[in-house]
Design a protein that fits this description.
This protein is of the alpha+beta class. It has a single domain, classed as Nucleoside Triphosphate Pyrophosphohydrolase, CATH 3.90.79. Helices cover 18% and strands 42% of the residues. It has 3 helices and 8 strands. A 4-stranded mixed beta sheet has the order 5-1-7-6. Strands 2, 3, 4 and 8 form a 4-stranded antiparallel beta sheet that branches. The chain is globular. It starts with 7 loop residues before the first strand and ends in a 19-residue tail after the last helix. Its EC number is 3.6.1.-. Pfam families: NUDIX. This is Phosphatase NudJ. InterPro entries: NUDIX_hydrolase-like_dom_sf, NUDIX_hydrolase_dom, NudJ.
Amino acid sequence: MRQRFQPRVTVAAVIERGGRFLLIEEETSDGLRLNNPAGHLDPGESPAEGCARETLEETAHLFKPTALVGVYLSRRDRAGGEDVTYMRLAFCGELGALDPERALDTGIVRTLWLTEHEIRASADRHRSPLLLRCMEDYLAGRRYPLSLVHTDPSVYRS
């Protein structure tokens, strides 16, 4: 019997300030890679809540999503030959205060602010092709209301 298709749901923050985008540099099985602050959606949270949590864990910054930039699918072969499809919900919003005492999540080497040109020039170091696509959609002005992604109250059941 064929295994059921189950994409992994991830959330990502597209954060721009003064023409620069906040990215993270992280250790991966392919070496150091650049990415949006992003990660897997956890049980008991909405996608916007997951994006705020992941941004805090990976950048030590508070983040308040204000709009959905887009929903994306990508596929890649992981180490060991595992074929994985990811569904990414990317949000933009308001970057809050930095907590200088907060340690970055395991595997995150540093945060950095890069221009659009620097991001394009570093495409060979992107963890996912979605990093560039999300930035392009953000720059094109794509913004959708948070209400587009409905989270049923059953998600919050204990």
